[in-house]
Amino acid sequence: MTIPSRRSSAIALGLLVATLAAGAGFANSGTATQCGIAKSTQGGMLALEGTILSPVAVSGEYRFAIQSSGNGGSSNISQGGYFTANANQATPLGKVLINAGSNYSVVFDVTAGGKKIDCDQDIASLR
């Protein structure tokens, strides 16, 4: 089946507009996708949780890696994989518990919509 050129041009334009609209959440500050690391305590341990919040439904891949050291020893933890997050809903993407007094470093990044986002910053909460 052959699609007339006018119709195929209209379809292509519609797909382009839809693609731009879907990616708009990553480009516009104020409505951009937010991500970061939430800290809390659980049973005397420090909980680190990678979280993402987007104004539009989004899917992609994430990497959440922690190196920690302290009196109890050291650890290297790496989590990651594919995810899907609903619009306007904070979605956890990885979580670890380490000794509360440990020194640690975190690498948390998200790739979605063809863009890589560095999410290493601490967050109190996402809105």
Description:
It is a single chain. The protein has a single domain, classed as Immunoglobulin-like. With 127 residues, it is α+β, with helices and mostly antiparallel strands. The strands form 2 sheets. Strands 5-2-1-8 form a 4-stranded mixed sheet, with no helix packed on it. It has a 4-stranded antiparallel sheet with strand order 4-3-6-7, with no helix packed on it. The protein has one helix spanning 5-27, and strands at residues 34-42, 45-53, 58-70, 73-85, 91-99, 103-112, 115-118, 122-123.
* Whole-number tally of structural domains: 1
CATH topology: Immunoglobulin-like
Mean pLDDT over all positions:
78
Uncertain runs:
1-30
Number of helices: 1
Spell out the helices and strands N to C. Answer: HEEEEEEEE
| C-alpha geometry | elongated
- Tally of strands: 8
Radius of gyration: 19 Å
Which class of secondary structure composition applies to the elements?
A: alpha+beta
User: Helix coverage percent of residues?
Assistant: 10-25%
| Biggest sheet architecture | 4 strands, mixed
User: What CATH architecture do you see?
Assistant: Sandwich
Beta percentage is over 45%
Report how far the terminal alpha carbons are from each other.
48 Å
